[in-house]
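tool_call: predict_structure(chain=1)
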Amino acid sequence: MENKLISKKKQPFPVTPLLRDYLQAHNRSVDIPVAYEDLLRFEGSVAILDGEGRDTLWVDCLYSNADRDELVLNLKRVYSILHADGSDSILPFITVDSIAFCTFGNTKPFRVKVRNVINDNYIFLYLKRCDASRVYGLELEQLLSPNRIQFLVHEGTLIEEHIVGIPGDVFIQERLEELFMQDKRALAKEFVKFNERCFMRLLGDMRSYNYVVVITQDFDRIQYRIRSIDFDQQSYEGNAKVYQPEHLPENDALSRMTHEVLTAESVRQYIQEERSLLAKRAASEGQRLQDLLTCMKEQKLSAEDKIAELKRDLFALTGDVNFKRARNMGAILKAALDFVQRNYQYHSAFSK
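tool_result:
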């Protein structure tokens, strides 16, 4: 089903000198031995199918022996920079099993499987063309969400760690109906909180395949957390509903379940909890958050018509004149965070 709320093709935006200085100051920008363009030199590919023989839209990349040897060595060094001390001391203990390329989406990422040769444990790294929107989204996830996230930027290349979880669309299709009532309520609580987090920090396009469901066993119950895995639509769209996952058709089943299993009073309580937590995180991050917002306010991150539309939508929801005064997406986000820190009053369809 085509989602008419979301742009078919988002324009990428460059990392500005001001943003690059911010990333350098906070150890997000480092010299790395391999660039996105280096991985594009594959000479052939093989389609990757899922367990039922369906095309995953990923392909295994085939390189010449010389190129592969160089790439493997440099990708192992990237792993050391991201997950260790950056030295070569761990290189004999790890190897690169595969380099896959995604043929779908805006970022066209590479997925690198790095394996420990001693115990066969492995993780994935993703290399993408750098887009300022995504960098802002990743950094805001670190500052304003309960999740910690690792990423590095070097010139035009962005490196991210893999976020573990069950893809949202798979979970909805295969597991949602089988949940016990206690689990449905726990998941619904998290969906309300996830909806609020996305809306308050203006992270858009959380269709079901752009987030994962993380399951944790906790004594006599299961805990659920929903985590974004896609940050391209940070502060880009004009329609305010794009920033609320509850309004996206791909999440209809999860939205219906939430309305069915939670009372209006519970929903209001969870919304208030999440607004309060986000306001506290914003206050605790203080100067770093303000420095990031300064970078955003000095950069064009969307089209003028989208900026005007979002200003109208948020002013209509809140009555806060600061939205009308905002001149770009960075200023809109600052107004949104200032608003929630002042009084926590945000609109959500769940609260009706």
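agent: Residues 166-351 form one domain. Proceeding to next step.
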